[in-house]
Predict the 3D structure of the following.
Amino acid sequence: MKIEKGNPIYTRLVDFIRTDWQTNRSVVDDMLLINNNRIIYMGVATFLVHCLFVIAFNLGYVPADDNEYVWRRGIILIHSLNAAAVLAITAASIVLFRKKTAFRSMMIVENIYIADLLIAGIAVVAVDQHVTSNITPFLIVCTIIGFFIVKRPINSILIFTGAYIAFHNLIGLYQADAAILMSNRANGFTFCSIGLCLSLIIWYSYRTNIMQDRKIKEQQEELKQLAFFDNLTGLLNRRRWMAILKDEIERMNRYGLECGLILMDIDHFKAVNDKFGHPVGDKVLEEIAYILKKELRITDKVARWGGEEFIILLPETSVPNSMASAEKIRKSIEEMQIRVDDTVIKVTASFGVARIMRREDFAVSYNRADEALYLAKRMGRNLVKSMESYNLRDTVTDDQTTA
């Protein structure tokens, strides 16, 4: 049956190939890290094997004739050169392992390692033809590459196709017996096919595991977002903020530090919801959350406390500096404009500032901030107020005050 464009089978096939290709590309870096680690361990083992062969053929074997002498010399040369090559490849892999992100270099080293394995396997088989028709070394390297080196399907196809072409041509130079040559070439094709099948199985198995791990991490991150953050604003939720506060109070008590506390409430927020609708109200909350993230330090912890109310913890910050931070946020909110159709919406916010006292129940500090917020509302809103017995006209320094 001829499959034409527009045919559902053709469309599904194209979609499958495109999706498979994109998924394969998305896990390449993960596979490179896996391969780099494996090359380190395999490189050490391979180096030792090459050294043992060189020692065994130098000290433990005496050729019986010229043919065996040529064979012995060829084996020693191949294993000596490959020992040096593997040592260099392993050293490069160790350096790249420490960098973790040098993926292009990892790919180059990985391909060099594969090429070295294939060259060694084919060369040993070719030299072995002086004394035996056995091609087991080629089977070994095909199995190692297929099982231990995780390559993309398209790359595996190219690798094993190239390997067979090289094997097919080189074996013909060293094996004169037509029957043995035919058998070796057939077996070589079988070995490459086995290596390719192993490679495909390993690739898709690892790819599935990686994609599942990513999905699990995404789900864990989603659960973390639900558990720790407010869905609308992306700020901390009350529960997470309280947990952070507990740790900060312990640190404050241990080292004698001072912390600032800000309560913030959007002025006339209910009127915004009633006039423009809750979607616009949500937009206002999102924009204010953006301002809070932008204006506060990384160490400051801000949460949506409930409705239109926000709470901010400022570690190692005095009341004057806390009030300066609140005033900066107040001005940014006052200047904020939200456009709805042809209407520009402007809102303001009121702030209450307090100091979190060492070895004092948090509820007491919170009540002082709440009283200050109530004072700001009562005095006309869009203000920053504090009930603390500080001379708030003192110069606010850039350095955070510590008790």
User: Anything to note?
Assistant: The chain has a mean pLDDT of 89. The chain has two domains: 8-221, 238-386. The first strand starts at residue 259 and ends at 266.
